[in-house]
Write a structure and sequence with these properties.
- By secondary structure, the protein is of the alpha+beta class.
- The protein has one domain.
- Helix content is 40%, strand content 20%.
- The chain is built from two helices and four strands; from the N terminus they run αββββα.
- The strands form two sheets. Strands 1-2 form a two-stranded antiparallel sheet. A two-stranded antiparallel ribbon has the order 3-4.
- The two termini are 26 Å apart.
């Protein structure tokens, strides 16, 4: 693993956290939408992440001079495997005066917990910020390496 691959890894982390922030924003925006049927009601969405693996760390050539001489699989970043809908129960409320009420007077609210979404938003924001700091630190280290030859 070279120092320059840190930029790719941190970049994939930033991209994944951006997707996470977008799904949180969508969930919060739809938290108070109502529907007259279960099928049409918004369900909370959550991204699923997976590790991107590389089978050939260090080029697979047995480079004994590299800083990291690992054998086997190694993480090369994170990717969004998909976005899934939360299948927990929706909230049915009896509101016969609501224009979206069904024939029985019920409306269905999404299964979005705004408090959990806000905590998830803060976590995603901090993770994005951490990845940005990693990139800045790697950039500083590379600049220091360049000045060694002077």
């Amino acid at each position: 693993m070279s120092l320059s691959s840190v930029f790719n890894i941190a970049g994939t982390g930033m991209s994944a956290q951006n997707t996470r922030l977008n799904t949180v924003a969508s969930n919060i925006a739809n938290a108070d939408t109502v529907s007259s049927s279960l099928d049409q009601t918004y369900r909370a969405r959550h991204p699923v992440f997976s590790t991107m693996l590389s089978n050939q760390m260090g080029g697979g050539s047995g480079d004994s001079g590299s800083l990291f001489n690992d054998s086997g699989d190694g993480g090369q970043g994170v990717q969004v495997a998909g976005i899934v809908e939360d299948q927990s129960n929706l909230e049915a409320r009896y509101e016969p005066n609501n224009p979206s009420a069904n024939k029985d007077g019920y409306v269905y609210y999404p299964n979005v917990n705004v408090v959990e979404e806000m905590a998830d938003m803060i976590s995603a924001s901090r993770s994005f910020q951490t990845n940005a700091e990693i990139m800045n630190t790697a950039k500083t280290m590379m600049q220091k390496v360049l000045t060694l030859g002077q």
